[in-house]
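Board notes (copied after class):
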Amino acid sequence: MTRYVYEFADGGRDMADLLGGKGANLAEMTRLGLPVPPGFTVTTEACREYLATGEEPGELGAQVVHALAELERSTGRELGGRDNPLLLSVRSGSKFSMPGMMETILDIGLGDESVLGLAKVTGSEHVAWDSYRRLLQMYGRTVLGIAPERFDRHAAGDEPMALVEHFKQVIRDATGEEFPQDPAEQLQRAIRAVFDSWNGERAGLYRRREHIPDDLGTAVNIQVMVLGNLGPDSGTGVAFSRDPATGARGVYGDYLPDAQGEDVVAGIRNAVPLAELERLDPASYRQLLQHMETLEHHYRDLCDIEFTVERGRLWMLQTRVGKRTAEAAFRIAEALVDEKLIGEDEALARVGGAQLARLMFPRFAAHAEAAPLAHGVPASPGAAVGAIVFDSAEAVRRADAGEHVVLVRRETTPDDLPGMVAAEAVLTSRGGKTSHAAVVARGMGKVCVCGAEELTVDVASRTLTAPDGTVLAEGTVISVDGTSGTVHLGALPLADSPVGHFLDTGEGEGALTEAVARTLQHADSVRHLEVHANADTPEDAARARRHGAQGIGLCRTEHMFLGERRSLVEAMILAEDESGRRAALDALLPLQRGDFTGILAAMDGLPVTIRLIDPPLHEFLPDRTELAVRVATRPTEHDRRLLAAVERMHESNPMLGLRGVRLALVVPGLVEMQVRAIAEAVVERLRAGGEPHAEIMVPLVGTVEELRIVRAAAERVLADVSRESGLTVECPIGTMIELPRAALTAGRIAEAADFFSFGTNDLTQTAWGLSRDDVEASFFPAYLAQGVFPASPFETLDRDGVGRLIRIAVEEGRVAHPGLKIGVCGEHGGDPDSIHFFHDIGLDYVSCSPFRVPAARLEAGRAALADGRDGASAAT
């Protein structure tokens, strides 16, 4: 018989697959002897079976009844009892944290009779009827699917007993049925509602954004309710063992006296700082600090803890490894190394390239001169500027139109997730660092300021009123500083972050820059992949080197033909004979040579892979329509010739036309000019005492014959320059693998290549039959929303299709040419997930934009640790 129910004492944190993260951690705290309200967990396996069949597993009902009986026996209370009723909370809990994305129902077990027993045992009719009101509201919305506004329209100031009657009538009107008085029915339907919420719209959206698989399902945690709303000696709160925003040690969190847990997370009431608990209840405060220390040492990480104090008794309701900002992630990881809780390998494994990239984002330039419009809680650091919007739909609409927006709400709910994704920042007038807005924004790396009580948010009139009476209409631009918690009118200037400045210059002090430097140093010491950069100018090359690049993996020569040089390209195209074409190429030669000399100087001693011209030549000519208008209105002989050339060279699909290696074969002298410029730049650097390492890359090769012809021409030029200069000029000659045919015939192509570099942008386009510029704005959003793509294949490599082509090319290329140097220079070279794939298949290097180099270095180190090649260093 399959076991679908586990009491907390029977589980542990290593059972997250089965019990979900919340259930596994409740079990772990129970095993540690912490004061956890007893309960049991319904497994994710039961959820998956229910979602697949529409029915609960046959054995589940009996197992829940048995676990409930044990709970009643151990507590001496009966679910729905008349005297001292047992009340239960029913909460979701997937393997991966999904804060607020699924459902919770509290106070299961209350009814018309048990509410009287609760009033008697608590000594408070208000508490009893308010708990009953909460149950009706949650149950009606979650289990019965009644629109929340049908409950919200009743005055919050009404007496709880009156609200109970109102809400029971709402349920009758909406469903035609009475609220069930049978507590067993309440529990069964609540469990089903939590199961169903796994497939809810907001949960699905969150999973797609966070790349959480859809087939995991959620566990359901059934736990004895403890009440924090029994008076001044009771309360509820959320605590962090370190600051989740900065990583600093200290006492962080929120406490709400005389309240239930949902009140804190929902941000409905503004909590007091956790430190205030020391004054209100010193004994509970001391116990909480002890438990936090126990948990942090046990989990060896930042812990996020929910707790309730019930009439002076502390209860631990939940713990998990806490979400944190990128800054906190680096600082905490290295601090734990210093505290000898973890080793350097584990510290590296706990941070990621995406987090490092966030730290390189700009912050506001010194805005001390700009008086804040308002202050709030700095919930997620960073700086953002955008137009105010007051609802999720408007945020999405404006963002899709290319506008930067700030989502402004009294407090956010899970339904606001699409707007939070679309916005540059989130601003709320209620809530604290543990509110929904704060937790979700931190997880997404979004700027967030919460609890800005000085601001009046009027969603109906779509206005925001500042303390000084200034009224801001929707569309007004504001600046939000998630580090200081301030809000400013207008667009403040942005400045580089300290980490960005440090990585660019090597200058900077502070705990964060030190943590980043240490982590990168360790990543560099364990990684096998080299990290190169894509750079087309000496300035970009120098920046890449400062960021730690070990070479240039892609130097695009066509970028050097733009600007004032375009006229020379036009002259080459329009030339009517060999002498005219030669004159244009001769004029381009010294300009190209100067470009290459500067880049080789900036990367002295490191390899520079120079790609020969790739795009179709007509891209260097004026627009066809623009030319036609000019010829029709004010014709010149030059424009007529240009238009004729454009017409002659027009292609229906330029991406698959006369470009890359094909130009080398049909445009005499073009490639020879480029190779000569490279060779003469090498000579110039050698004579200057430099150590140039130029490599020549031939693009768009589809057959080995193309590469052999171009290689022979290039080698003749290299030999000529060597003879003329008296210096030996040797440049490896390789190719870019960016066509499926090239990947599938890589064994043949490798016979004529010194190296391969995968152009994954074009390889993705040609493998999928997609034009990136067209599809990303058309049907990609729908594909992503419907889960056809877990992520854009242009951002994260498609391992099953494009990845398989790359794997074939690597394996067959190295069989034919042992020791063949292989790298990647498409955008995927800087994508964290893709870097792990490139490491796994044994590439020599990845190449990415200069700004992504530090993140790629970090991720390459993490990839080396992940495959176990370097044994994890033991923490002492």
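Comment from the instructor: DSSP finds 36 helices and 31 strands in the chain. The first strand starts at residue 5 and ends at 7.
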